[in-house]
Amino acid sequence: MTVPTESDPSRAHLWVLARLEQVSRPQSPVQQPWGVSLGELLPAAPRVPAVLLGFTRRTLDRFGGLRLAPDGIGINGQQVDWATIEEIRVRNTLDVLLEASSQRLADRIAGLVPWFVPARGYLTSLVVESVFGLVAQVAHRAMAPQPRIPALIPYQIVYKGRFGGRHRVELGIFALLVVTLLPEVNQSIATTASRHRIIAAVEHWTPAHGDVGHRAQELLHRAQTLSRWAPLGKLMRRVRGGRS
After folding, report:
1. Quick check: is 8 in a domain?
2. How many helices (H) and strands (E) does the chain have?
3. Per-residue pLDDT, 3
4. Any idea what DSSP says for residue 163?
5. Which long-range contacts (C-beta less than 8 Å, at least 24 apart) are formed by 140-149?
6. Structural domain of 89
């Protein structure tokens, strides 16, 4: 089985962006089960043998899946009933993605693909470059003369536990990108939450990164840096040796 060992960071995300834009959109409010995950989109990736997909799909579903249904919302494999949700916390889109796009996230992605999977290095690089390529796409859209991203996105859900107490679950990076790049998904969550009388708690946060243009530039630079870094250095040592 021949698998390429190098990829082009500037183009690696195009397959996932094209496939994501083909995904059906949920109703507002949601009426039928709907969902998307990075693992489900992986078959559209270039030069990935089908035999490898089974090793990674479930892991990637947990890493970044988003599910909507009339009875609840699923985030990273965890199902939360609408009836138990107390509030959905939303923040400025660029602020959320700046905070999420970090070296730590890249390191976490490096550990997603099991050590025994053939061509682990290539698959890991593909996922890293695709995720940060989508982050770069958000930055480009934010810098357009007429920005094409929502000002606010949900990033955290607060719900009541089965035995009392308040619990929180945060959207993973892929779910954050979905609600940013597919506005119908963002709208469906907001409309469904409103129907269930769930509070949308807007966090007013004064960013330390400057205005929209500066924050978008910083997000783009960070995404490009992490994407280029993906096949190199520490990541590849983790990929080959399964250790830091």
Report:
1. no
2. 10, 8
3. 34
4. T
5. 140/220, 141/181, 142/93, 142/94, 142/212, 142/215, 142/216, 142/219, 143/213, 143/216, 143/217, 143/220, 147/212, 149/93, 149/180, 149/181
6. 14-241
Dig out the tokens for 227 from the structure: 């994407």
* 116-174: pLDDT as tens digits: 777 777 777 778 888 888 999 999 999 888 888 998 999 999 999 888 789 999 998 99
Taking the alpha carbons at both ends of the chain, their separation in whole angstroms is 28
Q: Quick check: is 123 in a domain? A: yes
Residue 4 placed within a domain: no
Helix (H, G, I), strand (E, B) or coil at 73: strand
DSSP annotation string for 5-38:
S---TTTTTHHHHHHHHHSPPPPSS--S-EEE-H
**Any domain includes 121:** yes
Residue in 176, 211, 184 with CA at minimum distance from that of residue 90: 176
Rounded CA separation 179/188 (Å) = 10
Confidence category of residue 49, pLDDT binned at 50, 70, 90: low
The 10 Å Cβ neighbour count of residue 213 is 11
Give the pLDDT confidence of 11-24 residue by residue, as tens digits. 556 788 898 999 99
Quote the tokens at residue 42. 């992986």
Number of domains within the chain: 1
